[in-house]
Structures are given as C-alpha cells and as structure tokens.
Amino acid sequence: MAGALHGVVALDGPSGTGKTTVARKLAAALGAGYLDTGAMYRVVTLAVLREGIDPDDSVAVAAFAGHVEVGVGTDPARPRARLGGEDVGEQIRAERVNGAVSAVSAVPAVRELLVTGQREIIASVLRSVGGIVVDGRDIGTVVAPDAPLKVYLTASAEVRAARRSAQDSAAGRTLTAEQALASVDRRDTLDSTRKTSPMRPAEDAVVFDTTELTIDQVIVALSELASQRGLLGDEYAGASR
C-alpha cells in the first residue's frame, strides 16, 4: 500500500543540523522510505581505508570504487549500511571515516557511481512505497533536482558541534566539544568548496534553521510543508504517529 507521502523530499545540509535523525523520523511519520546517501559515501570510504588506499589519491580511489559493494536499507526503522554482506553501520561513523569521507566523496568518479545508485534506489522506492525522504549534501541540486520539496537544514556551528559531540558520546566515541567543532568546520569547508557537486542549497530549497528547535518541532514543520505542497495522502495521521 502506498505511503502517505507521495514523491521525494530532498533534505540537505551540513553535519550536526539533525538532518539524518530528522529524515528518518519524518519518513517514519509519513509512511515513506528513507535513504541516507551519506552512508553510501562512508561505506566506500571505509572500504578505501581497509584497502590501504590514501583517501587523497583520487586516481586510486576512482579505480577502486567500482569494486565496492555498497548496500543501504530504505526502512527508516532499520537503515542498515553494508559493505559486501557485512553490516558496517557502526564502523562508518568512526572518526577515521569522518576524517577521510570528504576526500573520497570529492572524487568525481565516486560521486557519479553513487549518484547513479541513489537515483535507482529512489525510483525503486517510489514504485513500491510511493514516497521517500532522502538526506545528504547534494540531493536537491544533483541527485533529485526535480524533488517537489527541497529543504536545506542549518544551525549555528556551536550547536552543530555540541550535537555531534553528544551523538559520539552516546555511541561510545570520545570527542570533545573543541574537537567536534574543528571536525564540523573542516568537513563543511571541504564539502562546500569541492569542484564536483559542492554542498549548497538548491535555488528553490526552503532554508530551515534548527538551532533553537527540537527534533519534534522540525518534524512538525516539515510535515506541514509537505502538506502545503500537496504531497500527503489521506493516510497521514500526524508527525507524532
């Protein structure tokens, strides 16, 4: 049965804005599929590191990327990430991956490969479920430029760093607030200045600041936006479902 959301919600923005959590909860609330495109780049990055390839060696990364088996789940309740047949959901969030993913994801061949896969996943979910929430850094500009709702989440650097530090602590990873801020700033700079698909809001994106908002407040606001765009069917029962 088709979900309440009909079509694609493209959710972009830098790390620490709550983007991934918001995307998962919004997809669950609207009975939609979910795709974390960042996880796909992280899987490739993990494979590159395991292979002993320098992430900054774009030629070697490009040659190797086509051999990496990337798998991601589209159920917001179980968004698994796989490398081959191995569940690597925890490993791709490690700090060594955080430090290398921008370099790997900047390689044009990697982006071309994964964007093709992302579009195939989106098309498959739209056929089977009816709607999907996709989060990343180039969804509205590159992956799904025709999405009827594009949102670019922002938040202050300090708040994003604090969120990142809290997430790492909850997952058992030690990262001070200063280290988290430095990591967030570094990733944002690299991703917004890369030549291929730089991180930026789409021209028709709704820019939404989450600095002073809870996750639930963001979910309600985005659900209302989807409703205003005519993307919700009769099955929608509210974001608190």
What is shown here, in short?
With 241 residues, the chain is α/β, with parallel strands linked by helices. It has helices spanning 19-29, 37-50, 58-65, 95-105, 108-128, 139-143, 157-170, 177-193, 215-228, and strands spanning 7-12, 33-36, 70-72, 81-83, 86-87, 131-136, 149-154, 206-209.
Fold and architecture overview:
The chain has a single domain, classed as P-loop containing nucleotide triphosphate hydrolases (Rossmann fold), CATH 3.40.50. Helix content is 48%, strand content 14%. The radius of gyration is 17 Å and the shape is globular. The protein has helices at residues 19-29, 37-50, 58-65, 95-105, 108-128, 139-143, 157-170, 177-193, 215-228, and strands spanning 7-12, 33-36, 70-72, 81-83, 86-87, 131-136, 149-154, 206-209. It is of the alpha/beta class. It is built from nine helices and eight strands. Helix 1 crosses helix 9, helix 3 (58-65) runs parallel beside helix 5 (108-128) and helix 7 packs across helix 8. The strands form two sheets. The chain has a five-stranded parallel sheet, with helices on both faces. Strands 3-4-5 form a three-stranded antiparallel sheet, covered by helices on one side.
